[in-house]
Every structure is written in C-alpha cells, then in structure tokens.
Amino acid sequence: MQENGRDEWRRHMALRVGVIGGGQLARMMIAPAVELGLEIRVLAEAEGMSAQLAASAVGDYRDLETVRAFVADVDVVTFDHEHVPQDILRALVDEGVSVHPGPDALQFAQDKLVMRARLAELGVPQPEWAAVHSTGELQAFLDAHDGRAVVKTPRGGYDGKGVRVVRAVAEVQDWFDALPDGDALLVEELVPFVRELAQQVARRPSGQMVAYPVVETVQRDGVCAEVIAPAPRAAERLVEVAEEIGTSIAEGLGVTGMLAVELFETDDERILVNELAMRPHNSGHWSQDGAVTGQFEQHLRAVADLPLGSAAPRAPWSVMVNILGGPAEGTLGERFDAAMEAHPDAKIHTYGKDPRPGRKVGHVNVAGDELDDVVYVARAAAAHFD
Ligand code: ADP
C-alpha cells in the first residue's frame, strides 16, 4: 500500500502541464504549480511576456508544428486564452495529447453564436438573440426589440471589443462589409440589467465539480474594474440558480478546468447568461487570497485530474480591484513601496507588463469582515498605481 501511495505521488510530481499563451493567467498558474509539485511550461507568443518565468518556448499558437513541438514535452495541455484554432486542437487530440478543456468544449467559448445555439438546446436562460446575415435581418430584430440591440462579432472579441449597442444598422455596416459570405453576426436584446455577476465552476475530466460563490463584477468601459465576493444582497434562490446554471453548463458542454459564466441580473431577479470563459478568469482573481483554493490552483488540479480543493471563502468579504493602465508617469515598480506601506492588508499582484492606457497590469485583493472597509482599502491600494 505504502509503496503504491508513493508511486502515485511520484507520478503527480512528474506531471508536466503545458500552458499555451504567456499572459497574466499563465503567470498566475506558476506559483500554485510549484506548490502542487507540478512542472509548468508555457508557450509564449513573444519574449518578455507576463509568464516569461515559465516560458519554455516562444512561438505562434496558430502554427501546428510549433504547438506540436511544445506539447511533445508535456503530459497535459491547457490555456491562457481560447484562441488556439480548432484544427490544431483536434490534431493534438487525434495524436493522443491530453488537452483540457478539449476542442469540443472550447468551441463554445470561441464562438458566441455556437455558444448561444448550444445554451438554447440546454435550456439555459439567456438574452433573446439571433444570427443575422444581413442588414435586413438586423433591422427585423431591431424592429422587434424597441429599436435597440447589442451586436457582437461571434469570434475574437474581448474586453468589450466586438460589442456595440446599436439603434440603426448603419452603426455596424463596417462589420457586415467585412463579413465573409455565409457568416453571421450575433444580435442580442439590450438586457436592462441591474448588475453583472459571474459564476465559476471547476470540473475534472472524471466529472467532479466544485462551484465558487457567485460574485458581482463591475465593468467600466467594457472592462472589468472590480469584483465583490460573494455578490452582496444575493437572495438564496439567486445563489442557487447561479450555481445550477454554472454546473449544468460545465457538465452539458463537457468543460474541464475552470469555467466562468458571466451573468446579467435583471430587476425582476432573473439571471441570464452573457458569455463563457474556459480558463481562470478576472472575476475569480479574488479567490487567490480569499478562498481556500484559488482559481489558478484549482484550474491546475482540474486539468491534471487531481482531487479538487474547497472553494469556500476564507473571509466574509473579498474585493478585487484591477490596476488598469498603470501610472501616467514612471513605472509600476516605483509605486510599490508606498502602496505596501500604506496598506499592509492588501495583496498586490502584478503582471510584469508595461503600463499602457486601459491595459490590465495588475490587481489588488483584500479580504475582511466589513464590506465597506474592504472596498475602501482595495480601492485605496490600487489607486497608488494610477
Ligand atoms: P467581451 O467578449 O468583449 O467581454 P461581452 O459579450 O462580455 O464582450 O460584452 C461586454 C459588455 O457589454 C458586458 O460586460 C455588458 O456590460 C455589455 N453587454 C454585452 N451584452 C449585452 C446585452 N445583451 N445587453 C446589455 N449589455 C450587454
């Protein structure tokens, strides 16, 4: 028995996780990988990226040979982003590579139209939507929805790029002009939401799932600015419904690793799915310091098919504030001493990126008993980097 147990442990010790993409999400997997005794290797897009420390290769994730060479030395492949093309993912799977999440699941995070169609089949609550191939079809949708709608490019959007609120078809004429024949844009009703929420679930290949508490996300200019965990003033039913939506999507789409479900809460307490991410997500950064198992550790445990950890909060409230853009003058590093000195209760995370307007360059986590205090400290600490 003892011998077997040790062999088991050795097997895990040797497990090599390959992450495609060298951004901050890959960077934040490095410390938990070390703690878990996993080897982590990153395929970065360029030199000097956030996850440089673990970058074993630099190259283009859209090139099959580059990706093949990278995965030859790893046991499990996962991602920092969802942009690796389907044909590459399918080639890897056909060659016997363990890819998590796999292409069958990932397609629903890669294409918002494919996602909407599948969620409709699963009976998950979502905004009214349609695939529109022409300005005529968009006009018909506008006419049926008080003359307003949200138009989205199905692929490649992030941080609000590829999302436009429109009152007239002319406002997305450029998108229609650029649309390949036969393709469509996604149009959705403009949801009169009172706030945005996010539900995260971790799922192992063997099916075990762990749900995090539903959180409130605050967006500014289409970019996540703050997260409060758990979501304040959330009725018990809402918490249950959010968890049920998250677990049914994770199971229904066969997601492995972390799943984030972005949600709208309406004034009549309905919740509707906005979009999905199948990787650690900005809405879960609070869990690094505020939950028993942070999302980066949990993602690694899930993709390596190790038992999942508890997602229970460590404190009544956790708040995450993004550091967006960084200082207008000087470097992020110059602000560190003052921020740390003034706010010893704040956990400051940086991504090793150069400041640029609007760019996510770091975040601050604070946890505690009183929400007002926690929000105050998190904002004050983050403000040192403005
Ligand atoms: P991205 O993929 O760029 O993150 P999202 O689909 O999440 O784009 O949309 C970005 C933001 O636009 C959302 O966080 C929300 O504030 C707003 N939004 C998106 N869809 C709708 C909708 N149907 N109704 C109202 N607001 C929306």
Task: Give the gist of this structure.
The protein is α+β, with helices and mostly antiparallel strands.
Structure explained in plain terms:
Strands 10, 11, 12, 13, 14, 15, 16, 17 and 18 form a nine-stranded antiparallel sheet that branches. Strands 3-2-1-4-5 form a five-stranded parallel sheet, with helices on both faces. It is 34% helix and 26% strand. With 386 residues, it is an alpha+beta fold. The longest helix is centred in the middle third of the chain and has 17 residues, at 236-252. Helix 2 crosses helix 11 and helix 5 packs across helix 6. It has three domains: 3-99, Rossmann fold (3-Layer(aba) Sandwich), CATH 3.40.50; 128-188, ATP-grasp fold, A domain (Dna Ligase, domain 1, 2-Layer Sandwich), CATH 3.30.1490; 193-383, ATP-grasp fold, B domain (D-amino Acid Aminotransferase, Chain A, domain 1, 2-Layer Sandwich). The protein binds adenosine-5'-diphosphate (ADP).
Largest sheet data = 9 strands, antiparallel
Radius of gyration: 21 Å
- The CATH topology of the largest domain corresponds to D-amino Acid Aminotransferase, Chain A, domain 1
- Total count of domains: 3
| First-residue to last-residue Cα separation | 57 Å
Secondary-structure class:
alpha+beta
> How much strand content do the residues show?
25-35%
Q: Averaged pLDDT, please?
A: 94
Low-confidence stretches: none
Number of helices: 13
| Overall shape | globular
SSE inventory with pairings:
Elements: H1 2-13, E1 16-20, H2 24-36, E2 39-44, E3 55-58, H3 64-71, E4 76-79, H4 86-94, E5 98-99, H5 103-110, H6 112-122, E6 129-132, H7 135-144, E7 149-152, E8 163-166, H8 173-178, E9 185-188, E10 193-203, E11 209-211, E12 215-220, E13 223-229, H9 236-252, E14 257-266, E15 271-277, H10 287-290, H11 295-303, E16 317-324, H12 333-342, E17 347-350, E18 360-368, H13 371-383
Parallel strand pairs: 1-2, 1-4, 2-3, 4-5
Antiparallel strand pairs: 6-9, 7-8, 7-9, 10-11, 10-12, 10-14, 12-13, 13-16, 14-15, 16-18, 17-18
Helix pairs in contact: 2-11, 5-6
Bound molecules: adenosine-5'-diphosphate (ADP).
